[in-house]
Design brief:
- Keywords: Aspartyl protease, Hydrolase, Protease.
- This protein has a domain of 109 residues: Deoxyuridine 5'-Triphosphate Nucleotidohydrolase, Chain A.
- The protein is mainly beta and 182 residues long.
- The radius of gyration is 17 Å and the shape is globular.
Length: 182
């Protein structure tokens, strides 16, 4: 199923909202969704390990990072961080091994005023890799397919340590295993 998304501004939240265009999804107010939680963004997932390994490749032979492409077009209209889905999903397989990764912005993103917040993608994470981005230079438009962030693979060194919990990793991410109590 191919999903086409178009950005719309929801003035009550001052955020960019993505609405499906001719996807067969309901169009009432309840169907409005944002890229942080929208099921339609799941269409951006890669379907096989082969496709995933082709997607995540270094730009050059000596590159540390693997460039990530945005799965949707977004426009940042305020200074709050926004989760942007990529075309990649976990678990991350690199050289046929599960890997964790650190997520950083590409240098070209910072030069353009787009700040990518650093993140961690655990080796057992199952779900779409998302980029947390924000800007002070409003508005800033990010086309679909933009390479604004990169994953730097990290070998898991904690596998033999006792875990704090026996629960399985989900596809939730962003604080799903415990986070900031506010």
């Amino acid at each position: 199923m191919q999903v086409q998304l178009r950005p719309e501004i929801n003035s009550s939240r001052s955020r960019v909202i993505l609405q499906p265009r001719s996807t067969g999804l309901p169009r009432d107010g309840a169907a409005t969704h944002d890229p942080n939680t929208c099921p339609a963004c799941d269409a951006a997932r890669l379907q096989s390990d082969a496709a995933r390994s082709q997607q995540l490749q270094p730009a050059t032979r000596e590159s540390l990072g693997l460039d990530l492409e945005t799965a949707v077009e977004v426009t940042l209209i305020d200074q709050r961080p926004l989760k942007i889905p990529t075309t990649s999903e976990g678990p991350l397989l690199i050289n046929r091994r599960l890997q964790g990764a650190l997520l950083f912005g590409r240098s070209s993103s910072g030069v353009k005023g787009l700040f990518v917040l650093p993140g961690v993608t655990d080796a057992d994470y199952n779900g779409i890799v998302r980029i947390m981005a924000q800007t002070s230079f409003l508005p800033i438009h990010i086309p679909k397919g933009s390479k604004i962030a990169q994953l730097v693979p990290v070998r898991v060194l904690t596998a033999d340590l006792q875990t704090a919990s026996e629960r399985e990793r989900s596809s939730q991410g962003f604080g799903s295993t415990g986070g900031l109590n506010t």
